[in-house]
Amino acid sequence: MSVGCGGPMEQEEAPDLATQEAPLPDCSVSPDDLRNYYRDAAHTDLIGQWGCYCGGLYNWGNKSGPYVEYIYSC
Predict the structure, then answer these.
(1) Strand runs (DSSP E) across the chain, as ranges?
(2) Enclosing domain of residue 37
(3) pLDDT in tens, 12-69
């Protein structure tokens, strides 16, 4: 027996992940594309990464500062 308040629950639609603003990259293909984000233009303090490196996804930290983009082939 189930007990609850209110009317019947409506099923919510699952979000369409293909229309997300920043989809995750497909890291299964080469060349890899990795951005290293730094606190300042001197690139002395790494504060975040976004992209692929040798099949792995790197998505961490602050991604609003200056960056250096590396394109690798593993």
Answers:
(1) 32-38, 46-53, 56-61, 67-72
(2) 25-72
(3) 666 565 555 667 778 887 678 999 999 999 999 999 999 999 889 999 999 988 999 9
3-state class percentages of the chain: helix first, strand second, coil last, to nearest 5: 5, 35, 60
Can you list the pairs that 39-44 forms with residues at least 24 positions away whose Cβ atoms lie under 8 Å? 39/65, 40/65, 40/66, 41/66, 43/68
Number of domains in the chain: 1
In a domain, 1, yes or no: no
